[in-house]
Design a protein that fits this description.
alpha/beta, 18 helices, 2 domains, 6-stranded mixed sheet, Rossmann fold, disordered N terminus, ABC transporter transmembrane region fold, elongated, 60% helix
């Protein structure tokens, strides 16, 4: 089955109202592309409901004409049962079609929501990931979307089916006996109030239950990613107890939700069937007094059972809908988040790449992190870097070196100042264009759960195997990769656990070299290497720096002696600039750092 329209972009989700089931309106943009399929499901639903409502009429005909005074007996009984079989056949076919269509819709809409949420999350700036818990985001992608799948694939169909049965059954009750129907309608009206009141409580408890599950997922995700640290400090039992406590809190909240739903179901069934039993008692006396036929009473009983069953089913569906409303609220909250870092509406293009790399200009930058507004990470930073120049950034920890890299990649925007790449303000560039022009080897190397070939190819997905191998050779990674059990096809483990720190770093260097950007950022690129590997990689990096502009962050000053220029940062400001020799002669911050490293 194909889409009629494309799935909605996250931004198209309307603002949600945090009251009752109005939250479910936020699902409409995801359901709208499949309106033709919904229409077919609706037709099947109408046929199934109509067939169900026809059955009591056949029973009335069978009782009154087949068993009543002066009846034709077997002839009418046979005719009634043939009619019942025909209705049952139509009911079976319509129900099967309805089940297939709504189940397909549930799976399709859920897949679209998951994709939209994930697509939206990966476009968020680092500011979002500073506070978001990975486990909670995963919970929204899995647990919450599963609840919505149940709603779209089952609950909506059940709600519409039982609503049709309720309305159709009620109409037929009035046609059968207006007096008894009026009595039962008044009694049923009193049932609605407690159902609505408890429904609101179920929705609140459902949201709380989902929050507790997300908390447990977040805790588990954090600990599993730090298992070596947990075991090194022998905190296995402590972390297991913490997780158990989180699970118990989720269980207690779930029990409260289940208790409320059980009470809601009990109350609905008791009140509905109590009302119907009372009315049927009145009907039995009406038959005895000759005011109704036996067939009419049988018909009334079947329609009353249909109405009662539909109300009971609607109460169950309401509980599911309340849970889905809580899940929808959480997902729409996530989709409503807008990254402060956006591509411009009409991005400019970068000039054609030259053989010497990119020119970089920083003008009076001032920046503080959103979570630390009172502490300036960078202040009045100005710098001109020529194409092909290699510039090293050194300074004490916290001096702003890594922050500068984050601004260059537009993970954040400075509060004041301007950054230009080849003469174009990076705010005027599309994020894809800007970041495609920059290669980075981070201090904390990221290795994906894939083989060595795909990990390096991440730098340029369209690269051939030969190009990947060439990049690995430049990064001094080819030799150790070849020694792996399956070579370049070897699985490196989650987060690269099968590799040493130096090997992971060389994979990251190869990835950046494969990208072949005009601007290369090296953040402690050789920090995890042993002396021999550092010598190999340093030679490869020097060759790779040819034809591109390179910025190097280094605490080990021996690795930046050959830089064209060394910029010394302290407290977010540039305090010194020059060559290794000239900075030593100045006897300032750089000279002190060098003294500590070279003469300690």
């Amino acid at each position: 089955m194909e889409k009629q329209d494309s799935a909605p972009a996250p931004e198209s989700v309307p603002a949600q109202h945090k009251t009752s089931l109005a939250m479910l309106k936020g699902l409409l943009p995801f359901m709208r592309p499949y309106r033709n399929t919904f229409l077919l499901a609706g037709i099947a639903l109408l046929l199934a409901a109509g067939s169900t409502l026809t059955i009591p009429l056949a029973f009335k005909r069978m009782i009154d004409l087949g068993f009543g005074p002066g009846s034709a007996g077997a002839e009418h009984v046979n005719s009634a049962f043939l009619t019942l079989f025909a209705v049952a056949t139509l009911l079976a076919l319509a129900t099967a079609c309805r089940f297939y269509l709504v189940s397909w819709l549930g799976e399709r809409v859920t897949a679209d929501i998951r994709s939209a949420v994930y697509r939206h999350v990966v476009q968020q700036s680092p500011q979002f990931f500073e506070t978001a818990k990975t486990g909670e985001v995963l919970s929204r992608l899995t647990t919450d979307t599963t609840l919505i799948q149940s709603l779209v694939g089952t609950s909506i169909s059940m709600a519409l089916r039982n609503m049709l049965l309720f309305i159709g059954g009620l109409i037929m009750l009035f046609i059968t006996s207006p007096r008894l129907s009026a009595i039962i309608l008044v009694l049923l009206a009193g049932v609605v109030l407690p159902i609505v009141a408890f429904g609101r409580r179920v929705r609140r408890l459902s949201r709380d239950s989902q929050d507790r599950i997300a908390d447990a997922s977040a805790l588990a995700g954090e600990m599993l990613n730090a298992m070596s640290t947990v075991q090194a400090y022998t905190h296995e039992q402590r972390e297991a107890a913490r997780f158990d406590d989180s699970v118990q809190r989720a269980f207690a909240t779930a029990v409260a939700r289940i208790r409320a739903r059980a009470l809601l179901t009990m109350l609905a069934i008791l009140l509905v069937f109590g009302s119907i039993v009372f009315v049927l008692w009145l009907g039995a006396h009406a038959v005895l007094e000759g005011r109704m036929t036996g067939g009419e009473l049988g018909q009334f009983i079947l329609y009353a059972a249909t109405v009662a069953g539909s109300i009971g089913a609607l109460s169950e569906v309401m509980g599911e809908a309340q849970r889905a409303a809580g899940a929808t609220e959480r997902l729409l909250d996530l989709l409503a988040l807008q990254s402060p870092i956006q591509s411009p509406a009409q991005p400019q293009a970068l000039p054609a790449r030259t053989e010497n790399g990119a020119a970089l200009t920083l003008r009076d930058l001032f920046f503080h992190y959103p979570s630390r507004p009172d502490a300036a990470a960078l202040s009045h930073v100005s710098l001109d870097i020529r194409p092909g120049e290699t510039v090293a950034l050194v300074g004490p920890s916290g001096s702003g070196k890594s922050t500068l890299f984050q601004l260059l990649l537009r993970f954040y925007d400075p509060q004041k100042g301007q950054i230009k790449l080849d003469g174009v303000d990076i705010r005027q560039l599309g994020l894809q264009d800007l970041r495609s022009a920059i290669g980075i080897v981070p201090q904390d190397t990221v290795i994906f759960s894939a083989n060595a070939m795909e990990n390096i190819r991440y730098g340029r997905p369209e690269a051939s195997d030969a190009e990947v191998i060439a990049a690995a050779k430049m990064a001094a990674a080819h030799e150790f990769i070849e020694r792996l059990p399956q070579g370049y096809q070897a699985f490196l483990g989650e987060r690269g656990v099968r590799l040493s720190g130096g090997q992971r770093q060389r994979i990251a260097i190869a990835r950046a070299l494969l990208k072949n950007p005009p601007l290369l950022l090296l953040d402690e690129a050789t920090s995890a290497l042993d002396a021999e590997s550092e010598r190999l990689v340093q030679g490869a990096l020097e060759a790779a720096m040819e034809g591109r502009t390179t910025l190097i962050i280094a605490h080990r000053l021996a690795t930046v002696k050959k830089a064209d220029r060394i910029i010394v940062l302290e407290h977010g400001q540039i305090v010194e600039s020059g060559s290794h020799a000239s900075l030593l002669a100045q006897g300032g911050v750089y000279a002190n750092l060098a003294k500590l490293q070279f003469h300690s």
